[in-house]
Amino acid sequence: DVKVTQSSRYLVKRTGEKVFLECVQDMDHENMFWYRQDPGLGLRLIYFSYDVKMKEKGDIPEGYSVSREKKERFSLILESASTNQTSMYLCASSLLGGGDPSGANVLTFGAGSRLTVL
Amino acid sequence: GQNIDQPTEMTATEGAIVQINCTYQTSGFNGLFWYQQHAGEAPTFLSYNVLDGLEEKGRFSSFLSRSKGYSYLLLKELQMKDSASYLCDLTTSGTYKYIFGTGTRLKVLA
User: Fold this and answer.
1) In A, which residues are within 8 Å of B92 by CB distance?
2) How far apart, in whole angstroms, are the C-alpha atoms of residue A70 and residue A90?
3) Fewer CB within 10 A of the terminal residue: chain A, N end or C end?
4) Do A97 and B96 touch (CB under 8 A)?
């Protein structure tokens, strides 16, 4: 089974701190994604990557950056954390992208990182 | 752009059947996924439809009508452990993106 591991389940940070959220997948998936999940808003895409060193903005990239130096690792960076970034952050990966019709594009999610910014 | 709509909350009784609807608007439809998410846990894949019709997987079935922009997830013989949120997820051709609805929180009562 594909495993997606997020380094921290719970974090508490202060406003203005730099925050790193790490995500590692172990099945050689091409695509990796960062979502945030908030009550009533569902899953919103922050950034995604379809290859090493490639990244694309999602729907809410402001205040975030990402890094994908190796295929298995996709990091989300909050350069200067703010209270409105308090949320559950979910990393996911897929073998192929969402536009592929073969069905090999099922997302596998990590357990999530709950970030609180004070 | 894309738009997905699903009910916020539903309640059903153990042993019953429940249908969770999802309507969407998009161009270049590719596929529609359903995920289950228990409180505090990661979403897990349930079902996937590319073509019109019904896909059955044990107690869970998913239906798609592309012409109507409509899908539903059918859960039979409900169990208490089915209490969870159910996420409708749309993919479109030519993009890597997955677009999620806000999720339907299902409560199963004894």
Assistant:
1) 98-99
2) 19
3) N
4) yes
